[in-house]
Amino acid sequence: MAQQLINQYHFLAKWGGKREDFLEISGLDISIDIIPMREGNSKVDSPIKIPGLKTFPEIIFKRNINLGDNDFYDWITTRNFGTVERRTIEIFLLDENLLPVITWRALNCFPSKYYGPVLISNDSQIATETLYIAHDGFTVEHSRKK
Predict the structure, then answer these.
(1) How many alpha carbons fall within 13 Å on the CB side of residue 44?
(2) What is the pTM of this model?
(3) Within a 10 A sphere around the Cβ of 103, how many other Cβ atoms?
């Protein structure tokens, strides 16, 4: 069976805001803690490794700032004394026809950091904002091509 490679530059995310366009999304990673263990009667002088808990870093969303769109900031300011609005976020990798081929579904998401633009007087870059999202894990689903 021939491999079908997918470009990484067609994507969008449904996160509860109006806009789904982003410059960059990163942090779709999983790590498993390694627990070294050695019993007292072991004849080996080094520990064995056993798997521990899964950990998930924050997912990072970066986008251009559009006038009148304050959704990132509004979401992070919903936090109130230990409570925050949690959402399910779906990230779609799209094929050449802009149809989803892989979906990452992150669960119980909430914003943990917001970075506004870096303002530089002699730079002609477009202003961007970045939102870090904490979550309880994600699933990955591949679409089946017919």
Answers:
(1) 7
(2) 0.87
(3) 16
Q: How far apart are CA 141 and CA 117, in angstroms?
A: 33
Distances (CA, A) of 63 to 19, 21, 22, 69: 10, 7, 5, 11
Q: Name 140's Cβ contacts closer than 8 Å, sequence gap at least 6.
A: 102, 103, 104
Q: Is 16 left (phi over 0), alpha (psi -120 to 50) or beta?
A: left
> Is 69 part of a structural domain of the chain?
yes
**What's the total number of domains in the chain?**
1
Which residue, among 69, 64, 80, has the nearest Cα to 17 in the 3D structure? 69
Q: Which two tokens stand for residue 26?
A: 């990163």
Give DSSP secondary structure letters for 17-75: SS----SEEE----EEEEEEE--TT-SSSS-EEEEEEEE-PPEEEEEE--TT--HHHHH
- Could you give the CA distance from residue 95 to residue 70 in angstroms, rounded to a whole number? 30
The parent domain of residue 68 ranges over 11-29+58-142
pLDDT tens digits, residue range 99-112? 999 999 999 999 99
Look up tokens 């021939």; give the residue: 2
- Confidence at 1, pLDDT banded by 50, 70, 90: low
